[in-house]
């Protein structure tokens, strides 16, 4: 075997492997009458292997059941493009033409299909079926005779039911003056030639009855010789009796005899349908094929079969469509048939076609309930062209402003902001509701038109004062605008309307803090902590993010409740400093020797707001001997003062302090001080095992009587490593750099220093409970500093730090 042949064989096998399960699933759907579901699987199989005849024919059959002529036309064009000399393409084109009622094209294409190779016996039978039905539909006895003769030449077995229809047409032609007596025998010989089936060596089959036996059956039928009116009366009476006594097997036998004797009429079919409806729907459907030919059925028969097919939407739609076609042949459309077909199409997922039928039904006969239902459906499917027609035909049945609203939503989805804005305003002009203003506010937020967004939210809140979502959203907007009291009122109103919205408690607490309502803020923070699980669900936070949020609430409770603050710190110089000693500095960060510091402070009610607290404090600084914790005589500071935080971002502080120190030129002095700091991640991080902390500090202090100053700047970066099983404790290596200068000496000479330090610190956070964060922070550090600039004699130092603060 050559490589290309092998590759082709493998490819065919692979495609067969892929299409087989899809075909099986399609057949399962077909067994249940689910044509839409079967078509999805058949389309997949066809796309995998378009050359497979079995899949193509099955898909074509489903498209035919769905009355989808375009599908058949597409399949035919694809096949003709791939294999122009194959009969399959012409079969599919003929089939499409038949569904489109283009019988002349069917009569042209069918012979083209049968003269070409490649058709399976099933496909050849389908060609003949379509060809014969097109000839019958044309109603020309001559054309029927010609078609029968041509089909007989190809030795194709026509379905017996189709032959019976042919015989019925030929029989009825006897009453036509132009009927030729030679027609029937020639037709019968053609039929006889086509209905002799091949016998299988494995399966014993009965020969189908020949037309001659059918003619004999006419003679044998009990009422064959009676006049037409009397015969139909007798048959009607007998069939009525059989149905009344539920003798359905005998009824089917009689019906078969009647068809074989060419005595079947559409009127008898309607009688059977009327009698079977409500008694035996499966049998009614079985004996009533879908047809729109007046020579075969009536509108009433098709409608009865349609009502009996309510659970099979595909079949019901076909019956209703046939009933409407029959009605239109009489010069008018059927309201009931259009209604039934439309509802069946909707049920099977054919939304656009279903809406078209219902639109046609309403144009024939207006029904307010149906019009409102169709308008509602159009609003749900504005992307369909038929929805625009519905809106144009029945504008009064759409809710006020609803069309404009849906147009606005579609324009927004399409990215056309200008069109969406115009449509929203039209909708609001027609129906100004709180929910619509709220939706419009959300659209304005997307466009970053924040001022207009606020106005829209105000309108929404005014029109819907009991809607907690609208109230809360307006509250968030006001909060963003700095309108704290108004935002707080809206948050409280929203929570009053919906007590389950616990996520508003933290927002309320934050605003109460900003307004200095400490006790209320503490209560709402504690309430937030109690309902943390509900808030986490509403916010959609993961466990780590919620842990961080919870710690923030606990820290706020601790800060608000504790007005007293104190700190103790010490610094021990571990190496020997220079002989020339400087006076102890009143500024902690300017010290390079040993020192002991203590401070106690009390936070007053804020003069401005809670974000800018006012604090009174008292502190003392004492110098230590090098390499010792012994106090250095005559080197101590004592001070009291008032701090006022000036900026709300907790960066800048101003203070005035009274200083008392022995050994200085002025024992008592007043120090004016401005300092600022900014810290990142210096507090405990509950959800992290490692984090970076940064501190930036600046200080400027001036002594009034001594006429001297201190300037200090410090930057420190450290990396915290959480210690397992050690509570809230981290090990932090760090690096820092400091610039300091002062003129606090008798000569008012400037003493400066620029250095770099590295250290290792153990940091612990102690205390706290379920509602409070730890209120003690301890830091123990060993640090080495090297001066790299300035005129200070102290160039290198090794320092031990310890501090605890509350």
UniProtKB/TrEMBL annotation:
It comes from the Bacteria. InterPro entries: NfrA_C, TPR-like_helical_dom_sf. It holds the Pfam family NfrA_C. Residues 638-791 form the Bacteriophage N4 adsorption protein A C-terminal domain. This is Bacteriophage N4 adsorption protein A C-terminal domain-containing protein. It comes from Deefgea salmonis. The lineage of its organism: Bacteria, Pseudomonadati, Pseudomonadota, Betaproteobacteria, Neisseriales.
